[in-house]
Amino acid sequence: MFETILLCAAIALGLISIPIVYRMIVGPTVLDRAVALDMLVVQVIMGLALYSAWTATTFAIIPALALSATAFIGTLALARFVARADAPERKDAEQ
């Protein structure tokens, strides 16, 4: 019974990743692609968790934690980059 539930969850993860990859390719803006990439990273982390549950080991937990920390730092870096691009220019010549 537990294996059936895990198999259904793995199939759902596979099907959900199709529109995510489509948004990464087609996404009209860089932010759309970045959100899709974050969603794909979450999909991979959930896949690693499913693998750990399926094999009843904790082998994939450490890479999942490392991947989530790396994705968090990357998201923060992108947010700062976009915030700087949208910020108005300072007028240093007036001072």
TrEMBL record:
Topological type in the membrane: Multi-pass membrane protein
Keywords, alphabetical: Cell membrane, Membrane, Transmembrane, Transmembrane helix, Transport
UniProt subcellular location: Cell membrane
Keyword Iron-sulfur: no
Main location: membrane
Key word Cell cycle present: no
Spans traversing the lipid bilayer: 6-22, 34-54, 60-83
Family to which the UniProt record says this protein belongs: Belongs to the CPA3 antiporters (TC 2.A.63) subunit F family.
UniProt name for this protein: Cation:proton antiporter
Organism of provenance: Dermabacter jinjuensis
